[in-house]
Amino acid sequence: MKTLVQTLTILALSAGAALAQASHGMDHANMPMTDQQMEGAVHAAATINEIGDGTANVSHGPIPEIGWPAMTMDLPLLEGAEMMGEASPGDEVTLMLIKGDDGMYAIGAIMPN
29, 31, 86, 96: most buried, per Cβ within 10 A? Predict the structure, then answer.
């Protein structure tokens, strides 16, 4: 019985990781982030307004997972943030937001829709 419970626990934990990797078509396998950061990653649809040196100005709808209303804002780009394709101002994208140790979110990846 103990082995069955352990096996089911491992399967349940693996399924969550597999779903996170499949989410929004982003391949998270090669991203330079900790497992804890990847586990807490939030995906959000947004429009790129401007991409600057170390920041991106985006407009997004509500992000209920983190309690954010729809807004336009500057978000920092994590060092090594992945650009999974070309994205220019006006493009619709999916953002992967990573919560830092300071409790603030930053962009870990941008994938054009």
Answer: 96
Model confidence, pTM: 0.68
Output the CA–CA distances (angstroms, integers) from residue 92 to 1, 2, 17, 86, in the order listed.
Answer: 49, 48, 26, 11
Instruction: Look at the chain and count its residues.
Output: 113
- Pairwise CA distance, residues 66 & 74, whole Å: 16
Q: What is the reported pLDDT for 40? A: 81
pLDDT tens per residue across span 4-33: 334 333 434 333 333 343 444 545 455 455
How far is Cα 49 from Cα 57, in angstroms, rounded to an integer?
A: 5
Strands (E), 1-113: 42-51, 55-60, 71-83, 92-99, 105-112
